[in-house]
Amino acid sequence: MTEGGAIRKEFMRVLLVGTGGVGEAIAAIAKPHAWMELMALADYNIERAKEVQKKLGDDKRFPAEFVDAGKQEMVEELAKKYQVDLIMNAVDPIFNKQIFDAAYNVGVNYMDMAMTLSEPHPTDPFNKTGIKLGDYQFDKAKDWEQKDLLALVGIGVEPGMVDVFARYAQDHLFDEIEEVGVRDGANLEIEGYEFAPNFSIWTTIEECLNPPVIWEKDKGWFTTEPFSEPEVFEFPEGIGRIEVVNVEHEEVLLMPRWIKTKRATFKYGLGDQFIGVLKTLKMLGLDNKEKINVKGVMVAPRDVVAACLPDPAHLGNKMKGKTCAGLWVRGMKDGKEKEVYLYQVADNEDCMKTWNCQAVVAQTAFSAVIAMDLLEHKVWGGASVLGPEAFDPIPFMEKMADYGFPYGIKEMS
User: What is the distance between the alpha carbons of residues 237 and 232, in angstroms, rounded to a whole number?
Assistant: First the structure.
């Protein structure tokens, strides 16, 4: 095997597990690139996989398959059937363990956009961490290294692109970093719906209602109350001032492993209505991801909530506005205080026109395809369980504009 684990041929073959909004966008963004020899579209909803396949218009390069992501052996069988180099996990993170372990067992590389789930501290959940995001995966890092395989975890936009920005800030913008803070906000509107999330409600409930994690050099990782420490952040390109609050997210678990900083945070612009809905779901127990018996039928309340809401993959034509993902960094450079915001703004109209995918899912997807490109061409490589911070950021950032998602840097000092 060559550097980079299982990436060993001139062309890449990928098993894409999950063809929801982000999965579709990954396939659409990958399609124009000749190095992508094959991308098998696997989903529990085979009709959805076929819908994406039809949009792509290339059945041979994008075969559609049924998969139950909760059954590891099914994922392994498909990886072997198509002789893939990499398994791309694009489903809700409740299935991460099975897909992650399937890639290891088959002997292929792995990527995801959200890490294995956390579990709150049993007695002090709003001060201490329990099982942290990604603990399951990082605990197996030596196994992956010994097998010469790469698991690149958290390579969406947040986490993903912003983690690349963190490495760039450390290497090129600062002598000393005081704080890295992801700040996410949007002015998107969805016509015709009183409440319609633009991303997976399953994942949104998970990350917003869990105790948020903060990292400080002197304390390590610790938790706080959901929606804590509100602040108003000025987002670029006309989005404007938005209140953001603490939310549990992978970047806070990833960045301190590679970035020398004194503090790491993640804050998201949710809005009062969204926070109110989430609090109501929590109060009623509808956030529960464990199955309960309802008149003889076993069903998870969270799955019912998701089924009652519109599919984010089909909201693009009703959405207007922009979404911004970025990293705020403060520290010192040449003896002076410095503060910058590195960001990417996606306009929904542009994303629909270019990819026929709405802005939030397209922005989440592009980083994964750039990472595949860099791995395939041996620009990035390695063997272990690694985050995006472990790699040279410049090749990634140079490709962002080529892929239609240019970055910006705003001086805030």
Answer: 16
